[in-house]
């Protein structure tokens, strides 16, 4: 009997989408089925719409885990990692109940912020424990090494005078450090370190990247002798996996109709992901910069927030948003012939796949990064939170598929003149744009990796065969006889 694969997501589209796509790819290999457990606590309306509009392949079942009460542990100021980790912790009885009732050999595949559920994988029913890392290999290597850094470094990482060196990897500039490790005295850091310290408990780590996209970091994770002492679970690059489904109801979206009438590769998509928000001042500067560039654009615009760059992470799809309330006076009328404003949400993958799209001003979340690369669209890197600054540095410095606006020393706002400059740089004619050539080549390599016989295809095939082999376990019947 083949095992049943139970995957556990956490709230947030940036985590749900990649693990949903992994689940679909697992069952596509055949002779194995899967259940995706979805935590309903703090689920956004956009998450519900995604699940209801997704066509599930035969063999994949989505299971709603009931909401749990967390108000005694969190408040409005609680950060994303802490809130997510508490939701997982309080949901463990429901998760364990589902696995126990299935009464089948079970492979667990857990989101990397759900490592508390690794403790469930005991006894004969849970035969393999795996983590799905829905970000990049450089970030994974950093997290694997973080418990060591935590012991070695005194004070704050951001006060170090030299870049942080993870063995075998590209050094991390202090300014590009992940947000969760910038203050070691807060709950966010403590939870981040907690998850990182539990990675060695896993039998394997599946990661949403491929060999050609991150050869340096993947080689370090496989071979570096210092990292191997942690110890290092086997790492399986199985990506890049992105959401490619067409909606169940085929209605022509306004922005898709608008794109149909634009010239080839002439439109810049401006979007900061499902959770990203800007300050009032930055929204104003971005509006002016886009207008000054005189380039066509679609802007997925959100109501500004003053202090929180992840302001809609748990509420995307529910926010009230009227761009006339906060954009510069007269902006909407002045740009009506060259720009389209889309409040809150747009079909990002469809836009990136459209022939008229020629650039992407992005927060550099890993999902958005992969979506842009897989559609051959160069990037203006505008990171906001989480690991996005590390992603942006890799896209600019290693892959050469992105440019990053320059922020003046002592400033936190990107000024309109700089926005105008980078927009014009990315949206130049194709024959002059080296960025396009590089991202097209990376697109080609990523698609080869995913295809049958490619590196990511073979990697996932290898781990599935390992799961099946582990399922051939010795059990004991009621009369005391052993059987397989």
Automatic annotation (TrEMBL):
GO molecular function terms attached to this record: UDP-glycosyltransferase activity
Highest taxon of the lineage: Eukaryota
InterPro entries on file: UDP_glucos_trans, UDP_glycos_trans_CS
Keyword ATP-binding recorded: no
The enzyme's E.C. designation: 2.4.1.-
Keywords, ordered alphabetically: Glycosyltransferase, Transferase
The keyword ATP-binding is annotated on this UniProt entry: no
UniProt similarity note: Belongs to the UDP-glycosyltransferase family.
Name of the protein in its database record: Glycosyltransferase
């Amino acid at each position: 009997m083949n095992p049943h694969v139970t995957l556990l997501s956490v709230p947030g589209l940036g985590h749900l989408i990649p693990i949903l796509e992994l689940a679909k790819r697992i069952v596509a290999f055949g002779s194995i089925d899967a259940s995706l457990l979805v935590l309903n606590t703090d689920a956004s309306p956009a998450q519900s719409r995604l699940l209801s509009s997704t066509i599930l392949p035969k063999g994949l079942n989505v299971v709603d885990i009931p909401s749990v009460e967390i108000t005694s542990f969190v408040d409005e100021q609680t950060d994303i990692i802490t809130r997510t980790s508490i939701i997982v912790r309080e949901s463990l009885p429901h998760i364990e109940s589902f696995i126990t009732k299935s009464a089948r050999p079970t492979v667990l595949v857990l989101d990397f912020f759900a490592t508390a559920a690794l403790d469930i994988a005991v006894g004969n029913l849970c035969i393999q424990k795996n983590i799905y890392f829905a970000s990049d290999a450089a970030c994974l290597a950093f997290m694997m090494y973080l418990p060591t850094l935590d012991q070695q470094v005194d004070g704050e990482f951001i006060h170090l005078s030299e870049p942080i060196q993870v063995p075998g990897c590209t050094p991390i500039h202090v300014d590009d450090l992940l947000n969760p490790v910038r203050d070691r005295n807060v709950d966010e850091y403590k939870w981040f370190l907690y998850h990182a310290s539990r990675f060695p408990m896993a039998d394997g780590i599946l990661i949403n990247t491929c060999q050609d996209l991150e050869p340096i970091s993947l080689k370090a994770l496989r071979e570096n002798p210092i990292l191997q002492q942690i110890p290092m679970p086997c790492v399986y690059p199985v990506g890049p996996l992105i959401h490619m489904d067409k909606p169940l109801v085929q209605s022509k979206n306004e922005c898709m109709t608008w794109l149909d009438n634009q010239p080839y590769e002439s439109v810049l998509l401006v979007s900061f992901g499902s959770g990203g928000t800007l300050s009032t001042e930055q929204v104003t500067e971005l509006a002016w910069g886009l207008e000054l560039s005189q380039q066509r654009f679609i802007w997925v615009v959100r109501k500004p927030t003053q202090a929180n760059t992840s302001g809609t992470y748990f509420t995307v799809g529910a926010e009230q948003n009227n761009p006339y309330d906060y954009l510069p006076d007269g902006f909407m009328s002045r740009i009506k012939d060259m720009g389209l404003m889309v409040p809150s949400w747009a079909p990002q993958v469809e836009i990136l796949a459209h022939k008229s799209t020629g650039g992407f001003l992005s927060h550099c979340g890993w999902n958005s990064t992969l979506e842009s690369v897989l559609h051959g669209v160069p990037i203006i890197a505008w990171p906001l939170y989480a690991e996005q600054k590390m992603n942006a540095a890799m896209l600019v410095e290693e892959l050469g598929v992105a440019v990053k606006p320059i922020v003046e020393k002592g400033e936190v706002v990107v000024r309109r003149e700089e926005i105008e400059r980078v927009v014009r740089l990315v949206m130049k004619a194709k024959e002059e744009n080296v960025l396009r050539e590089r991202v097209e080549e990376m697109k080609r390599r990523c698609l080869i990796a995913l295809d049958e016989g490619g590196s990511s295809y073979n990697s996932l095939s290898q781990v599935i065969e390992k799961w099946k082999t582990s399922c051939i376990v010795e059990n004991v019947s009621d009369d005391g006889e052993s059987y397989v």
